[in-house]
Design goal:
This protein has helices at about 5-20, 20-40, 45-60, 65-85, 85-100, 105-115. The protein has about 120 residues and is mainly alpha-helical.
């Protein structure tokens, strides 16, 4: 079975979580979220979809701060949903929200986005 780039990135974050301090992992996550936010809000359709795919992969990735991770993912998806109406983007964002909803702790974030 072939490994996807996003699966590789998620595995890399897992290695960072095991091998670095929480502060170092938090710094990497902060930079990662900044870059993914830019992708989700890009004017290029492919970059937008790549950003949503990255967010979806990050849902199951290790994190220095799980609550902050879900807030960042929710905020990025929320901004994208407010500015994008393409079917492909909406389908990808819905799938990411579905992945988030599977975690009991994430239901509030998902409900907030759906109710908006």
């Amino acid at each position: 079975m072939a490994t996807t780039p996003l699966a590789t990135e998620t595995a890399f974050v897992g290695v960072l979580a095991r091998e670095t301090s929480l502060e170092e992992l938090a710094a990497v996550e902060s930079e990662l979220f900044t870059n993914v936010f830019l992708l989700v809000n890009s004017s290029d359709d492919i970059e937008e979809l790549a950003g949503v795919a990255a967010l979806s992969a990050m849902i199951s990735a290790a994190s220095a701060d799980e609550e902050r991770k879900y807030i960042e993912i929710s905020n990025s998806l929320s901004m994208g949903l407010r500015t994008n109406s393409s079917y492909d983007f909406l389908a990808a964002a819905a799938a990411a929200l579905g992945r988030m909803a599977r975690g009991a702790a994430n239901v509030d974030y998902v409900e907030f986005e759906v109710v908006l």
